[in-house]
Write a structure and sequence with these properties.
This protein is mainly α. It has one domain. The chain is about 75% helix and about 0% strand. The protein has three helices and no strands. The protein starts with a helix and ends in an 8-residue tail after the last helix. The model has no long low-confidence stretch (mean pLDDT about 90).
Length: about 80
């Protein structure tokens, strides 16, 4: 997989996860499962980018969750 292909896959996956957070009644565990699947793709295709994934994507998903599901309380 070329890096552009990986970037496209990550962008689409990220958009889908964010959309689910914003528009569905969903439990955090379901989001966490999707994040882990996304992490697996990065781990398999670009393991040197795993730390970057954690800083960018995971932080984004947690921020969205906390903003849009404040009634659910903090994650930690």
């Amino acid at each position: 997989m070329q890096s552009d292909d990986l970037a496209t896959v990550l962008a689409r996956t990220s958009d889908r996860i964010c959309s689910r957070i914003l528009h569905e009644q969903i439990e955090w565990v379901d989001i966490a499962i999707e994040i882990e699947k996304m992490r697996d793709v990065v781990r398999a295709q670009a393991p040197d980018k795993l730390a970057l994934f954690e800083r960018l994507y995971e932080a984004r998903f947690r921020r969205f969750w906390e903003q849009w599901h404040e009634d659910a309380g903090p994650l930690f």
